[in-house]
Write a structure and sequence with these properties.
Elements (H helix, E strand, L loop, with lengths): L14 H34 L5 H9 L9 H14 L3 H11 L11 H9 L13
């Protein structure tokens, strides 16, 4: 590397230089955390807004969801669930990750097991359902 001779190892720098490098790293880290926090807050805000598309709202309502619970987050979950029930393994994995569960069978090989897991919440299942 041509510029390797220009690099000064951290332990060979003066205490003042080391302090300044650490301080700038801390400032950059704080800025990054604030940026991620604001992005997360924006996503939470958008997901909590009501569904703007009337046709989509009616479709969700027809599924039996309480009108007070119909928001963008619910629309997203319903869409993921529908894809997973049809056999989309990525949608199923994402749902399982959100639920904190792992399917007993491979969702690509056993659509019925996947549908059972999605349609019956964890509270409704017996612990024996997860034993092998």
């Amino acid at each position: 590397m041509p510029n390797e001779k220009n690099l000064i190892p951290f332990n060979e720098r003066t205490e003042e230089e080391q302090r300044e490098i650490r301080a700038s790293g801390g400032r950059a880290s704080g800025e990054s955390r604030r940026r991620k926090k604001s992005l997360r807050e924006a996503a939470e805000l958008y997901l909590s807004l009501p569904v703007a598309n009337r046709r989509a709202w009616n479709k969700i309502s027809a599924e039996g969801v309480d009108p007070d619970d119909i928001d963008n987050q619910m629309a997203m979950i319903i869409g993921l669930t529908q894809k997973a029930v049809k056999g989309d393994a990525k949608a199923a994995k994402l749902l399982f990750d959100l639920l904190g569960e792992q399917p007993k069978e491979d969702p690509k090989n056993d659509r019925q097991a996947l549908a059972d897991l999605l349609l019956h919440p964890a509270e409704d299942r017996d612990i024996k359902d997860f034993e092998e």
